Amino acid sequence: MKALVTGASGFVGAAVARALLAQGAGVRTMLRSGSDTRNVEALDVEVVTGDLRTGDGLAAAVRGCDALFHVAADYRLWVPDPEVMHATNVDGSVRLLRAAMDAGVGRVVYTSSVSAVGIVVDGRPGDESTPVSIDQMIGAYKRSKFLAERHVMTMARDDGCPVVIVNPSTPIGPGDVKPTPTGRLIDDAVHGRMPAFVDTGLNIVHVDDVAVGHLLAFERGTVGQRYILGGENLSLQEILRQVAVLVGRRPPRVRIPHRVALGIAHVAEGWARVFGGVPQVTADAVRMSEKKMYFSSNRAMRELGYAPRPAAEAIADAVAWFRNARADQA
Questions:
Q1: Is 81 helix (H, G, I), strand (E, B) or coil?
Q2: Residue 66: domain span
């Protein structure tokens, strides 16, 4: 099998590429010009250039492929121009899937996010059927993933696109070179830069389990269906406690009220707009944290045979990777 993996220079995409190679598949990856290639340099993959935002190179990238794993996305919780994110995550995804259909690609796995899934207000885990609307999407990233997923579902229903949708929760583990927003949180906790926390919760999953879930969705998933690829629901306080134990630090004990955190975020964003860079904390992240982002992977377990490992193992691997990454930079 020849598979195109978009975004293999990124965290989840690289894990998917590794999983495919381990199964003996031929892997092609499409990267933008100038992409960070650290995650693919050691992999036996064919690299082609393409750009979701402009559409350049998409037709050539899918040509001759049996499968497409569309993992690439603009994943930022703060962006100066939301239209750039929309052009990549929504318009670019539609362009790529249409190119795949034109090229006769037999099967597509589209990587969405639990950002596009509803959250139950009483703290119970949400699932694929939890009601949700665009009005509940906080920030440009969540809106873009919600809209992209709706377009993909329409293409499966109306155009015959052979696509299965997966919704990873909060992956952590090795290879988070950028890092992702959650990876930055783990890295900060590892190195003593997380003195306090807000009252929230996340569904933690090992990135390699998410990658295996992609392959299971390819093999066993129902076209037009979506599957949450999650792990274990934990409070942020418990996540930080586990990190602290692993690195021999005292866990943070100060809980910051959301309204205070929101004020800090507005100041950080204002500073970033004036002086450049990325704010350490964003208003959208704080607003999202007002609800515990808990999810259930029961459908994927039942229909795909998905079996994620305990969150403690994911946290331990993430901590080890960030400690080693810092040591290598020293």
A1: coil
A2: 2-176+205-232+294-309
pLDDT at 262 over 80: no
What is the distance between the alpha carbons of residues 92 and 145, in angstroms, rounded to a whole number? Answer: 12
Rg (CA), the chain: 19
Contact 320, 299 (CB under 8 A): no
Letter for the amino acid at 262? L
Q: What is the pLDDT of residue 289?
A: 73
Residue 163, both tokens: 């696509």
Query: In angstroms, what CA-CA distances link 306 with 163, 195, 213, 225?
Result: 18, 36, 6, 15
Element (H, E) at 249: none
Token pair recorded at residue 106: 């037999």
Task: Examine residue 193 and state whether it is found in any structural domain, yes or no.
Answer: no
Cα dist from 35 to 50, 80, 237, 305, whole Å: 11, 20, 35, 34
Residue 281 domain-assigned (yes or no): no
pLDDT at 330: 44
The CATH number for 140's domain is 3.40.50.720
Is residue 191 a contact partner of residue 326, using CB atoms and an 8 Å limit?
yes
Closest CA to 229 of 139, 117, 309, 114: 114
pLDDT in tens, 102-155: 999 999 999 999 999 998 877 789 999 998 889 888 888 889 999 999 999 999
Nearest to residue 110, comparing CAs of 214, 26, 254? 214
Q: Give the DSSP letter of residue 313.
A: H
pLDDT band at 287 (very low <50, low <70, confident <90, very high): confident
- For residue 326, the model assigns a pLDDT of 60
Alpha-carbon torsion angle 51, 163, 17, 55, nearest 10: -10
What's the total number of domains in the chain?
1
- Does 81 fall in a domain? yes
Residue 187 lies in a domain: no
Long-range Cβ pairs for the range 317-321 (8 Å, 24+)? 317/172, 317/173, 317/174, 317/206, 318/172, 318/173, 318/174, 318/176, 318/183, 318/186, 319/186, 319/190, 319/243, 319/246, 319/247, 320/174, 321/173, 321/174, 321/175, 321/176
Tens-digit pLDDT profile for residues 47-59: 999 999 999 999 9
